[in-house]
Amino acid sequence: MKRALISVSDKTGVVDFAKELSQLGFEIISTGGTKKALENSGIDVIGVEEITGFPEILEGRLKTLHPNVHGGLLAKRIPEHETQIQEHGISPIDIVCVNLYPFQQTIAKKDVTEEEAIENIDIGGPTMLRAAAKNFEYVTVVVDANDYANVVAELKEQGKVSTETNKALAAKVFRHTAAYDAQIAAYMTNLVGEENPEKVTYTYELKQTLRYGENPHQKASFYKDALGSSFSIAHATQLHGKELSYNNIHDADAALQMVKDFDEPVAVAVKHMNPCGIGVGGSAFEAFKKAYEADSKSIFGGIIAFNRPVDKETAQLLHEIFLEIVIAPSFTQEALEILTTKKNIRLLTVPFTEEKKTEKVFTSVEGGLLIQDQDTYTLTNASVKVVTKREPSEQEWEALKLAWKVVKHVKSNAIVVSNHERTLGIGAGQMNRVGAAEIALTQAGELAKGAVLSSDAFFPMDDTVEAAAKAGITAIIQPGGSIRDEDSIKKADEYGIAMVFTGIRHFKH
Questions:
Q1: What are the MGS-like domain coordinates in residue numbering (predicted)?
Q2: Nearest Cα to Cα of residue 471 among 494, 493, 455, 495
Q3: Model pLDDT for residues 36-78, shown as the tens digit of each residue
């Protein structure tokens, strides 16, 4: 008689699966809670201790690690192996259905203790899975409840599970155990505070297969970190619209990272990973009006993110423009009724009430991976110093704070011109700083008079200050740190410009 060993933490569908196997003539072997669940459903079950001749001990830590189990899993169906297991009284096991202790769910709990996490590290389960997967030519191994039906169907139709299916199931097992071990490794690494481990392994779950990547000729998929921040695009809820594209996801993430830096009501418009307009106000409606005014041309086809609910009044404004995505904590029913009349606009909600988590930033390079901390520095962290004769006025300070928040998110070289309510001009991704300043100042036009300017890095020469002064800028915020800082300070004093050094740069490549 063929044998199936079933031992699962997630019991979804397992009773029906075991019934089908039993009806097909399989003996069912099981342990613990799974055994009870199957017996309670009227299924004949052999306890694993009857196979091993050894009781469960060490609070359940030891029950399946035994030659009578692993010999049955690892034996090839060849004469030499069959003779050996018969000599030792071992019977083959033909199907293994195992899923693991819920380590991921355990460590995701806010109040989890170290002891609880450690006890949810499965040892016997991964060992059985790996043994069965290694022997896929002869053993069917199932780790995912979604595969139960296909296994049963093949058994009914063919009398066995095909080698191709067994190989695919084995591959899934090794992905599953690798991900499981990666989560344990990450938890233990964080537990001991190791910042630069000699090896890193990260695991992600498929969220979406994308139509294409950055361009139509590139294939792409979207994976999420199951233990990552829920305050993220990876964990957003889509209320309306077609599936997100590769570029949509990139831009939406950029917009959300910008919104996170603001406590006051803000609207952020993003195109190609750069802000094209940011406005603050007393409400989402006021903030969006200002963001739209900042660059009414570039906002077309853009991504809009709010940190306040979208109401009817705001939705009516949004409805007048072609937009790809709108992100917000929520949408009123009236707002949804207005916006969902547009078939293709994507509406996403993100839990803004969730705690902000600082995560690592990964950038792939050919043959490797760059890992760094997120740039979470703000003016609170900075050593702010007024270096000119004139100090900024109260309104200039508010404008400088806004400009400094925004410039962090603009591709380097970056210059932002703003007042205290919205951006006026943004120069992004230029090969020299004066070029970025000229773009920002040209966009701002006459509105640059009386406005402020921020730079993501220091001025190597005084030419940026000269350009700002001629455009009417009255205050500047920049990191400082150039060997020629004094030239820029003198130039600012010459034009009566207030200039602030932060001591922090915000390069963004």
A1: 1-143
A2: 495
A3: 999 999 999 898 888 877 877 777 777 777 888 888 898 888 8
